Amino acid sequence: MKSTGIIAEFNPFHNGHLYHMEQSRERTGSDYLIIIISGDFTQRGLPAVYRKYMRVRSALLSGADLVLEMPVFGSVAPAADFADCGVSMLTASGAADVLSFGSECGSLQALEHQAALLSSETESQSQAVKAALRSGMSWPKARAMAYESLGGISGLPNDILGIEYLRALKKYSSSMTALTVSRTDPGYHSAQRNGSFASAYAIRRAIAADDQEFLQAVLPPSHFTSLKEDPCPAVSADDFSLLYHHRLLTITKEDLAQTASMPADLANKLDGERLTFGRTTELIGRVKDRQYTYTRVSRCLTNAMLGITKEDQEFFKELNSAPWLRILGFRKSASPLLSKMKKQSSVPIITKTADARNLLSKTSLRLFEKHLQASEVYRLICEAKTGQSMKNEYTRSPIIL
């Protein structure tokens, strides 16, 4: 039995993801694909465009065998913490032999070289970063350009994640080998499409514009089937505007500064916006600057709204960013994989939320309940938008195909 793990958001699941899964299975000869998927909030700090259950069904219909949910403490986090959580979960499962991830460069050797550079930063690299910052670049762009100028790869988003995956594999002394698959779309931030491939960014724009011609070309049949089976509205950060502003209005500046990933000066800027109501995107646009990018502000705002604190993140990391493995869906044909994981997993496996109380430690249970509350916030926004009720996290069962 051989299994390949993929860490993803599927926001939404599109033809590029389908290609990645097919290539991963073919190039590794794996019997099973294990997916670690972000729940209802993503690494960019924004809500997922569709509810997680719809995206899980789409992945299962397209060839995934088992889908596990990344806790919100890992999914709404910088690239290094996101990668750390996903790799730790796959390692803890005891069932994954290969980690497969997408990249812009498509070269595992180049990514390993870059990972080595980041693990042992030299004085020349540090000076290059500082010079780029002085030129007016944001910190992420400054680091990317500095390392590229010193023989590394460009700082494109999936390359950065790939590097962090490799560093996490080493950190956990994981037995998994690595595989990278080249992206097929025109680029992470491109609004164009390349035949039947487009970036998730372009697809989310098409969803917002209800461009059905574009969507039919770049989304697999499983996407449309899943929308019928698990109907849910497309949501955006602006649908959460009242919740974001309510949190800023009612939280003290001191408590805001204790929000996960929140720097003190950014907390001060956000506190200054407590009496200025507007859409979430307008709020982020007013606060972001060279130092704190749109993504960084979004993550801090979402963590604040969800009540995720620096203490929560510390406890989560003390548990190796994998306190549990929660099953969101699986195929019946994957029963041998599930049996193997139940025997070899080093952390509790949760199929029913009611079982968590008997399986988790006191600290893990507190984090798990906060994780569920985050998904409940998302569900309530969906219900408010459609007027239709949906099953909550305490009554929803895993999807089985």
Short précis:
The chain is α/β, with parallel strands linked by helices and 401 residues long. Helices cover 52% and strands 11% of the residues. The strands form two sheets. Strands 1, 2, 3, 4, 5, 8, 9 and 10 form an eight-stranded mixed beta sheet that branches. Strands 6-7 form a two-stranded antiparallel ribbon.
Would you write up a description of this structure?
By secondary structure, the chain is α/β, with parallel strands linked by helices. Helix content is 52%, strand content 11%. The chain is built from 20 helices and ten strands. The strands form two sheets. Strands 1, 2, 3, 4, 5, 8, 9 and 10 form an eight-stranded mixed beta sheet that branches. Strand 1, helix 1 (15-28) and strand 2 (32-38) form a beta-alpha-beta unit. Helix 5 packs across helix 8 and helix 12 (241-250) crosses helix 16. The longest helix is centred in the last third of the chain and has 25 residues, at 362-386. It is globular. It starts with a strand and ends with a strand. The model has no long low-confidence stretch (mean pLDDT 93). One of its GO terms (molecular function) is ATP binding. Its EC number is 6.3.4.-. Keywords: ATP-binding, Cytoplasm, Ligase, Nucleotide-binding, RNA-binding, tRNA processing, tRNA-binding. ATP binds at residues 7-20, 102, 158, 183. It is found in: Cytoplasm.
